Amino acid sequence: MGPMELAALRYLVPALVLMPLLWRTGLLPPGVARRDLLLLVLGGGLPFGLLVLAGAQFAPAAHISVFMSGSMPVFTALLCLVVLGEKLPGWRWAGLTLVAAGVVALASTRSAMAALGHWRGDLLFLLAAVLWAVHTLAFRRCGLTPWHAAALVNAWSALLLLPVLAITGAPQLLTAPWQDVALQALWQGGIAGLLGLVTYLAAVARLGASRAALSAAAVPPLTAVGGVLVLGEALDGRVIAVVMLVAVGLVLASGAVCRPRQGNRGRASPGGRS
Q1: Of 65, 131, 151, 237, which sits most exposed with the smallest number of CB within 10 A?
Q2: Ranges of each domain in the chain
Q3: pLDDT at residue 16 above 70?
């Protein structure tokens, strides 16, 4: 299946499941700034998903983990610094520097990457990471619960997707084996579109934007291993080293190793969402 088929499953399935949450508030809930709602949907909804799905057509799975998951915490931390004035300790910036170094190192690989056009996918992954960072900060500002925000993101994404599907269609949903369609509906719609989004937003509500974005720490090594075991992708020593460098940088940036004892500072304030 192509990007349009996966996008249809990714947004239509959770939109239908979460529709009851919008019964009272509608698609434009009162008290939520229209700008924040727009950024919430654009950053975590259909535009983000299409960038990732399109990029996956050009670059291997290991590049998704490094260029998107690896750079996402960096962009989020920078936005928190610029927009919210949130300052991070020096050792957390050191971890983010390792992440950025890993991204640059992988981008400098010239062997098969240039010949196969992997740079196109890598660029799309970086753009997707920027959108996700915007989505993270927009959720923190909008005052919604994780479930309500997920319902809005998927509902608006489904509405935006319908006219696109009317033009391009999603023919492979009708021709692909039903087992594959069911599996992708479960993974794309149920796990990624519903549970994954709600879990991430709940982490943002409790831990803050910059720390929650570091939940991607396990993604680079796991994606690289999955690319080898499931997709049969080649994985040379340089890519392995870069993936591990990004993972170490993310762990350091999270404060899991060097976090000072400051009580419950990292938890949400009494007015935080749950």
Answers
A1: 237
A2: 3-254
A3: yes
